[in-house]
Amino acid sequence: MVPSNIQSIFERTRGAKKILVVDLGFLGDSIHLIPALVAIKQNYPGAVLDVLSAPVGAEVLKLCPEVDAPRVFPLSEKSPAWWRHWSVIRSLRREKYDLTFNFSGADRTLFLSFLSGARWRVGQEGARKHFWSSILVPDLLPRIDSGLPVFRQKCEFLRRCGLSVVEEKFSLKVGGDARQWAIEKLPGPALHLARSNGRRSFVTRRARSVFLVFPFRTSRPF
Fold first, then answer.
1. Does residue 26 carry a pLDDT above 70?
2. Is the Cα dihedral 180, 183, 185, 189 positive or negative?
3. Region 62-69: what's the mean pLDDT?
4. Least confident piece of the model among 48-57, 139-148, 212-221
5. Cα angle at 178 between 173 and 183, to 5 degrees?
6. Which pLDDT belongs to residue 80?
7. pLDDT score recorded for residue 128
8. pLDDT value at position 196?
9. Which domain holds residue 86?
10. Residue 165 lies in a domain
């Protein structure tokens, strides 16, 4: 059952002018976030939409035209505690956000949603339940069925908040400079292979992930 206060969240927040999505995702998570960002922008057409993400996620979200500012929360394989990043938190509070969406419910993201200072804070329950979760994020939705693809879980979350999600659309636009770089470096179709370390795809000096990009020729279109 969806709590009544969650069902009315869109009606209560339709006047929001500045929105922050807190989603500290890496490459795959950020791709799965895009249809939800498109839906948020469609439902709040006059609002500024920013996203707080991991560094690699922020790079991906620069290609999403619905995102006004991809903000970076430093994460690495040995990330310091969230409260050590006071400069990031101060910069978020200066933005005076009206509304935050939190799709993961992870402890770190709940605290960041709260510390953003947003008037309305919406999220879904995390894997671990705490008595203080609903204090940090007052509008907490029960977790969405994990059997759905991740991007559909996020869109279903928005539907339960009262938003209209008609089309689950992936919206990415590659700029001219990036296109030219690809043409010069990768003449012809290319295949990207990535090997994860089994936990997260961190890219550091001692990275355990291996990324290979090489050109190949094929007569078959993609």
1. yes
2. positive
3. 95
4. 212-221
5. 115
6. 64
7. 83
8. 46
9. 4-160
10. no
User: In sequence order, what are the residues at sequence separation of 6 or more whose Cβ sits closer than 8 angstroms to the Cβ of residue 13?
Assistant: 98, 99, 120, 122
Rounded CA separation 218/222 (Å): 10
User: Token match 């977790």: residue?
Assistant: 143
d(CA 2, CA 15): 23
Task: Centre a 10 Å sphere on the Cβ of residue 203 and count the other Cβ atoms it contains.
Answer: 14
Cα–Cα distance between 116 and 52 in angstroms, integer?
A: 10
Q: Answer yes or no: do 49 and 95 share one domain.
A: yes
Asked which of 18-22, 77-81, 153-157 is least confident by mean pLDDT, the reply is 77-81
| Same domain as 195, residue 111 | no
Q: Could you report the per-residue pLDDT of 171-214, keeping only the tens digit for each?
A: 888 777 777 877 787 766 665 555 444 344 444 333 333 333 43
Tally the domains of the chain.
2
Token code pair at residue 94: 């200066």
Say whether both 39 and 87 belong to one domain: yes
Question: Among residues 11, 21, 71, 62, which one has the least CA distance to residue 41?
Answer: 21
The answer to whether position 39 is within a domain reads: yes
The token duo for 175 is: 């700029």
Q: What is the CATH number of the domain that holds 15?
A: 3.40.50.2000
Same domain, 31 and 107: yes
